[in-house]
UniProtKB/TrEMBL annotation:
UniProt feature, compositional bias: Low complexity: 1-18
TM spans (from-to): 48-71, 83-103, 115-136, 148-169, 218-238, 245-262, 292-312, 384-404, 416-434
Organism classification: Bacteria, Bacillati, Actinomycetota, Actinomycetes, Streptosporangiales
Protein name according to UniProt: Uncharacterized protein
Keywords linked to the UniProt accession: Membrane, Transmembrane, Transmembrane helix
UniProt entry tagged with the keyword Transmembrane: yes
Segments of this protein annotated with the region Disordered: 1-31
Species of origin: Planomonospora parontospora subsp. parontospora
Length: 463
């Protein structure tokens, strides 16, 4: 028997065929994307998501495959202190019961769009929780830390590029694909429009003349500043090692980012960048890393030379001499806390409220010739005040308690990723007082927490 049937024997033809080997079958099956692919979709495709209007929603969309991956694993680990975070999420959802309750000093009456805003923010809280668990549960082999660091480093470069676009083409804006297909009644909503309408910069007049502040590829100038500062530690990590081109790219990008950083007019950003630089230099220098000292000294000298020999110096000094919103912010914070303590100290009001009147005029509200007469809503101009007003003292305490618990677990860890992660947390703590952070900045913070927690867990497991 030769084992091969002749052409005249149909049954023999079937019998003579050898079954395909398992490797051959696997080779013909479509390859599943490897673990961590949702993060690559989000960050590597971010310029495309900005142009098409999906940049604020891609994080929420990619939560679905992350959840499915966690579900497939069966057992999901959580970091220590996670119970506080779960309680915070429950407390946040309870705020839905207070959406149509009038707040002291707030404009009375119910606005239906509060439900939309509340749902959007709840989706973000869900998304940042998912990414914390997703990154934290994938192993180093499945999702290498260096890969995540490079993705966040890429986002720093994208943010710098968007800032330069805002400086060079401040009037650039265009309708996104999503904006064109959505109903006008929805796309013209103030919140939705800010999320789906790409703009390179926004204009301000608090220096006494019109000046543009970069925002691309995000929705607001303060969001641009917060994201730049939180992505920066990962950019430094990614380019402090590796080939020659990485070491050359590092100073070049840092010098380029000086222009949009100054033109952002964000004093909070300037302060946080200084704090972060001092913290990382100190921590790495204690480890004996000479590159940290060389980078700090060389970078400081280069920045001073460029700064002193350009128009940036005058703009910087002018901004420092123009406090602008200091007094108004202080008054808003005070009224926000008092309103919460009087009206709903435990649960909060679920969302923000417009303020009755104004700190600058009897009539209240922004008007021609008095842009400063307009006052932001209660619970804005800083995520800390949003937490207190929207989720009450209990909700704010649970949120801050979880963050402090995780920082305490890693602040003395000498690992380079832990140092960068703690720098992110310190920057985030400062930004809590002055910036609204419930979107990409908080997403980045959760990824930093996940990387530190995962390393801590692996060390314990390894003995």
């Amino acid at each position: 028997m030769s084992g091969t049937a002749g052409p005249s024997s149909p049954s023999g033809a079937l019998a003579g065929l050898s079954p395909p080997s398992p490797s051959a079958v696997e080779g013909r099956q479509p390859r599943r994307p490897g673990p961590g692919w949702p993060l690559s979709v989000i960050f590597l495709g971010f310029p495309l998501w900005w142009v098409t209007g999906f940049s604020a929603f891609i994080f929420l969309i990619m939560s679905v495959p992350m959840v499915l991956e966690l579900w497939r694993r069966g057992t999901v680990r959580v970091p220590r202190g996670f119970a506080m975070w779960l309680l915070f999420l429950v407390w946040m959802l309870l705020g839905a019961l207070m959406l149509f309750v009038d707040a002291p000093y707030g404009v009375p009456g119910a606005e239906p769009n509060r439900i939309l805003v509340f749902a959007y923010r709840a989706a973000w809280y869900f998304s940042i929780t998912v990414v914390l668990l997703y990154v934290g549960n994938l192993t180093e082999e499945e999702l290498p830390t260096e890969r995540v660091v490079r993705l966040l480093s890429f986002m720093f470069v994208v943010t710098v590029g968007g800032g330069l676009l805002g400086v060079l083409l401040p009037h650039l804006e265009f309708p996104s694909l999503l904006e064109l297909v959505l109903p006008k009644s929805l796309s013209r909503n103030d919140l939705v429009a800010s999320l789906i309408h790409p703009k390179a910069a926004t204009s301000t007049t608090f220096l006494g003349y019109e000046e543009s502040r970069p925002i691309a590829p995000f929705a607001y100038a303060n969001s641009w500043g917060a994201n730049l500062a939180l992505f920066l530690p990962f950019f430094l990590l990614a380019h402090s090692r590796g080939g020659r081109w990485r070491r050359l790219l590092l100073p070049a990008v840092l010098l380029l980012c000086l222009w949009p950083v100054i033109y952002s007019l964000n004093r909070g950003l300037w302060g946080v960048l200084g704090l972060g630089a001092a913290y990382m230099t100190f921590r790495f220098a204690r480890k004996g890393n000479k590159w940290a000292l060389r980078l700090a000294v060389g970078g400081a000298v280069a920045l001073l030379l460029v700064f002193a020999g350009s128009p940036l110096k005058a703009l910087f000094e002018q901004r420092l001499d123009t406090p602008h919103s200091n007094e108004r912010r202080g008054q808003l914070y005070e009224v926000t806390v008092v309103s919460t303590l009087i009206g709903s100290p435990v649960v909060g009001f679920g969302s923000t409220r417009d303020l009755q009147g104004s700190f600058a005029s009897v009539g209240g509200g922004e008007r021609p010739g008095c842009k400063g007469c307009g006052v932001p809503p209660l619970g804005t101009q800083g995520s800390l005040w949003f937490l207190i007003f929207s989720h009450g003292t209990v909700g704010a305490g649970l949120f801050l308690g979880f963050m402090v618990r995780r920082f305490a677990a890693h602040w003395s860890d000498p690992d380079r990723v832990a140092i960068a992660g703690c720098c992110v947390l310190l920057s985030f703590a400062v930004f809590l007082l002055i910036y609204d952070l419930l979107d990409v900045p908080l997403y980045t913070v959760m990824i930093a927490l996940a990387l530190m927690w995962r390393r801590e867990r692996m060390e314990v497991a390894g003995g």
